[in-house]
Amino acid sequence: KQEVTQIPAALSVPEGENLVLNCSFTDSAIYNLQWFRQDPGKGLTSLLLIQSSQREQTSGRLNASLDKSSGRSTLYIAASQPGDSATYLCAAPNAGNMLTFGGGTRLMVKP
Amino acid sequence: ETGVTQSPTHLIKTRGQQVTLRCSSQSGHNTVSWYQQALGQGPQFIFQYYREEENGRGNFPPRFSGLQFPNYSSELNVNALELDDSALYLCASSLDIYTWGESSGNTIYFGEGSWLTVV
Asked: Considering only CB atoms, which chain B residues are within 8 Å of A92?
């Protein structure tokens, strides 16, 4: 059974800092891993989907890496902005795109 | 804008009642999944439908049931509501269920969710 853990659970940083969010998973037999953003009281927005054949995926100031051998993924946010404040969730799929989510990292970027 | 819409956005029910939540997926998306997200936690997988058939279920009791219709809409039904059912219920759709192979992998699109409060 896949288990996904995210560290830290909460993070508060000043604007402009570069930061790293961590995600670990127990079953490395995955073909991809997905990072989502969730604003308070809202649904999930897909940020990045990393295939197992890729080690990194980039979108703007976001960079996600995947290391299946160690069961880890990281989301790097460069030059953080107050608008980045949200909860960030990683999710690993099992057969059929059924996702197992971590508990999320609640990010606060202070002006 | 993900193209996935859910209704209602908020509702309050009494313990023991039944509730139906609705979702409209993107056209062409054959797979719909439902997730329950308690406050402060990550979403938990309830079940998934592919071409109107349930093809996967999480650790939820039978009083959680669903339907998927040919017009890419779906429903989540919960009977005999309990206080612990209070949560955000998320619908997600994707093109297909298959993620085999390194070149596969579907982006999954979530709706804004339905907030259910059971009192």
From this structure: none
Report the pLDDT value the prediction gives residue B95, as an integer from 0 to 100.
Answer: 78
SS3 call for A82: helix
pLDDT of residue A98: 82
**Cβ-count burial of A89 within 10 angstroms (0-12 exposed, 13-18 middle, 19+ buried)?**
buried
Backbone φ, ψ for residue B25 (5° rounding): -90, 170
The DSSP letter of residue B82 is -
CB contact under 8 A, B43 and A101: yes
- Cα separation, B6 vs B58, whole angstroms: 21
Strand partners, B56: B48
Bin A42: left if φ > 0, else alpha if -120 < ψ < 50, else beta.
beta
The predicted pLDDT at position A1 comes to: 82
Whether the predicted pLDDT of A82 surpasses 80: yes
B9 pLDDT more than 50: yes
DSSP 8-class letter at B25? P
Is there a contact between B42 and A104 if contact means CB atoms under 8 Å apart? Answer: yes
Instruction: State in Å, rounded, how far the first CA of chain A is from the last one.
Output: 41
Contact: A89, B2; criterion CB under 8 Å: no
Q: What is the pLDDT of residues A40-57, one digit of tens each?
A: 988 999 899 888 888 899
Could you tell me what percentage of chain A is helix, strand and coil, using 3-state DSSP and rounding each to the nearest 5? Answer: 5, 60, 35
